């Protein structure tokens, strides 16, 4: 199986301070890689690097066919859920999902299926800003999962989620990987990091 992410000897600095050094990481289609470690160890920094939002100062990094780049062609294959997205004013929860399904063809999930899977059916006609924190996080994840992608990058996807939904999230990620996708997530949830089939990397 050929890897879709390959980092060798990666080093990253922020404002001249070394954050990561000598980091090796691989991820193949069908894999879930869970990056764990203490606050400030560099998990989000690593994800930003994999997303092409931050350039390493040393090492080799390949994501799919080359170095990651913050360009439309790259983002067509890569879905990132990190900070809360900017919600479109005037669009409901359902319409945010409709938008994803209309733009990214063919959608992985219909908006109706996503509303069910992410327990948002009862909130479909509300504006996202009227949702609770955990419901907004579920909408962020649902929008990423409606789109087709090869790589899913998640920064603390468990943020705001209740214990029951965290278990479901593990199942959703397993399904994504079983269909050939690659998940790389930074997490503080050790149960999520140990979802069957996940490989854990402690920074
Ligand atoms: N602009 C910056 N300049 C210098 N250092 C920074 C900058 N931004 C972040 N850092 C430092 O980089 C380190 C790594 O931050 P990062 O957010 O990647 O950690 P993390 O492992 O994701 O932490 P957490 O578990 O708290 O989310 C931290 O020590 C942080 O203080």
UniProtKB/TrEMBL annotation:
Residues 5-203 form the ABC transporter domain. GO terms for biological process: cytochrome complex assembly. Keywords: ATP-binding, Cytochrome c-type biogenesis, Nucleotide-binding, Transport. Pfam families: ABC_tran. GO terms for molecular function: ATP binding; ATP hydrolysis activity; transmembrane transporter activity. InterPro entries: AAA+_ATPase (IPR003593), ABC_transporter-like_ATP-bd (IPR003439), ABC_Transporter_VariousFunc (IPR051782), ABC_transptr_haem_export_CcmA (IPR005895), P-loop_NTPase (IPR027417). This is Heme ABC exporter ATP-binding subunit CcmA.
């Amino acid at each position: 199986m050929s890897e879709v992410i390959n980092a060798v000897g990666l080093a990253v600095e922020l404002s001249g301070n070394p954050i990561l050094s000598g980091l090796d990481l691989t991820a193949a289609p069908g894999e879930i890689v869970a990056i764990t470690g203490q606050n400030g160890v560099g998990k989000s920094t690593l994800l930003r690097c994999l997303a092409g939002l931050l350039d390493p100062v040393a090492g080799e990094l390949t994501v799919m066919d080359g170095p990651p780049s913050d360009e439309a062609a790259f983002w067509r294959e890569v879905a990132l859920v990190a900070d809360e997205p900017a919600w479109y004013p005037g669009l409901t929860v359902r319409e945010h999902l409709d938008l994803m399904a209309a733009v990214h063809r063919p959608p992985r999930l219909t908006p109706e299926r996503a509303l069910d899977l992410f327990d948002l059916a009862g909130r479909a006609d509300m504006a996202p800003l009227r949702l609770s924190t955990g419901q907004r996080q579920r909408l962020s994840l649902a929008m990423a999962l409606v789109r087709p992608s090869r790589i899913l990058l998640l920064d603390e996807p468990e943020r705001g989620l209740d214990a029951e939904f965290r278990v479901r999230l593990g199942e959703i990620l397993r399904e994504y990987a079983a269909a050939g996708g690659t998940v790389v997530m930074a997490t503080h949830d050790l149960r999520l990091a140990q979802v069957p089939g996940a490989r854990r990397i402690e920074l």
